[in-house]
């Protein structure tokens, strides 16, 4: 294969789990031109995957929403003359795009009745697989050997400099050690309660000499401010002030990152930073960190008997409530 397209998934954590696919493709085809097609919001992460040569954005809710927008994308894919497309995403639309683009080999899971648009339709595994292994099976079914399942991200020098300047403005010198607290998440059920984060940060401020930096997206600014309130220069808030590349650089600078199951947790683990992973409704066997760094994973069996819980109306979020502040503080000490 000389030209390979990987049609990727949409969410940050899942995109990180897809990185070993690109590593395996590069090892199998060292001279190939490897392109990833994905939604715009994950572009910055994909730009930090060394094995990817180019990125094609599929703006499914923007310029590619309309039929003529999709036709323009199909024409672009045709001009690229790909030899093969590996579809990690399970949508029928993406299979149609690859088929109408005339890509001769189209390999993906037999989901949503799309097998007729694939040249090799793979049966969905009956057993539960980690997301990384689920994506790797797509290329393994095409005969590609996988030797390394570790996701790795390369941080840009520009992002490192930008984060150094940001931390300096926030009162954290280049020589100072710090812990990153990432309290947000893409859905509330996976978040550790705000009150517990507040208590944790206050206990760490008393017992740990390191500073703390609270990260997060724009929507997490109020949450971060509540957690940092009254602690002065011991805690700095950067929530809403970093790009994804800058967030990677921030995580790489940290001694430890404390986070629930979320994209930033997996970013930190994939840039080699030790993490405390707080798991509740999701299962670490399916979405646990797969990077090279050490992980302190906390989760309690609260008797729900759920493989992975998506009960968004849960009245008390008992699985996340079960993780205590003292447990997290002990986990921090155990990773030192």
3D architecture notes:
By secondary structure, the protein is an alpha/beta fold. 37% of the residues lie in helices and 16% in strands. α9 links the parallel β8 (211-214) and β9 (235-237). The longest helix has 14 residues, at 67-80. The protein starts with a strand and ends with a helix. The model has no long low-confidence stretch (mean pLDDT 94).
CATH superfamily of the largest domain: Glycogen Phosphorylase B
> Structural class of the secondary structure composition?
alpha/beta
Strand content: 15-25%
CATH architecture of the largest domain: 3-Layer(aba) Sandwich
Q: Give the CA-CA distance, first to last residue.
A: 46 Å
Topology as a string of helices (H) and strands (E): EHHEHEHEHEEHHEHEHEHEHEHEHH
Q: What Rg do the Cα atoms give?
A: 21 Å
Shape: globular
Q: Treating each run of at least 4 consecutive H or I residues as one helix, how many helices? A: 14
Instruction: Summarize model confidence as the mean pLDDT.
Output: 94
Low-confidence stretches: none
Helical fraction equals 25-40%
For the sheet with most strands, the description reads:
6 strands, parallel
Could you give the count of β-strands? 12
Which fold name is given in CATH as the topology of the largest domain?
A: Rossmann fold
Total domain units: 2
- Strand order in the largest sheet: 3-2-1-4-5-6
Which CATH class of the largest domain is shown?
A: Alpha Beta
């Amino acid at each position: 294969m000389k030209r390979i397209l990987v049609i990727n998934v949409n969410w940050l954590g899942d995109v990180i789990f897809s990185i070993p696919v690109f590593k395996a493709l590069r090892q199998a085809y060292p001279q190939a031109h490897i392109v990833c097609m994905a939604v715009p919001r994950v572009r910055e992460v994909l730009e930090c995957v060394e094995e990817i040569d180019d990125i094609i954005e599929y703006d499914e809710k923007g310029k590619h929403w309309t039929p003529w927008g999709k036709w323009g994308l199909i024409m672009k894919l045709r001009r690229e003359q790909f030899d093969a497309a590996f579809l990690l995403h399970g949508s029928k639309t993406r299979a149609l795009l690859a088929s109408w683009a005339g890509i001769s080999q189209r390999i993906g899971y037999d989901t949503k009745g799309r097998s007729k648009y694939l040249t090799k339709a793979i049966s969905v595994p009956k057993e539960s697989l980690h997301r990384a292994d689920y994506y790797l099976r797509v290329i393994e079914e095409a005969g590609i050997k996988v030797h390394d399942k570790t996701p790795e991200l390369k941080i840009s020098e520009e992002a490192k400099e930008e984060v150094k300047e940001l931390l300096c403005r926030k009162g954290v010198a280049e020589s100072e050690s710090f812990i990153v607290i990432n309290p947000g998440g893409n859905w509330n059920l996976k978040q550790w309660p705000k009150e517990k984060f507040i208590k944790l940060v206050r206990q760490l401020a008393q017992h740990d000499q390191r500073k703390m930096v609270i990260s997060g997206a724009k929507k997490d600014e109020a949450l971060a401010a509540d957690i940092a309130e009254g602690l002065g220069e011991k805690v700095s808030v950067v929530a809403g002030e970093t790009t994804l590349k800058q967030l990677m650089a921030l995580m790489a600078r940290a001694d430890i990152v404390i986070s629930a199951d979320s994209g930033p947790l997996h970013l930190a683990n994939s840039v080699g930073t030790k993490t405390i992973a707080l798991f509740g409704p999701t299962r670490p066997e399916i979405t646990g960190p797969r990077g090279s760094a050490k992980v302190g994973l906390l989760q309690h069996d609260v008797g729900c008997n759920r493989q992975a819980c998506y009960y968004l109306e849960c009245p008390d979020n008992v699985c996340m409530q079960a993780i205590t502040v003292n447990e997290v503080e002990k986990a921090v000490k155990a990773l030192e």
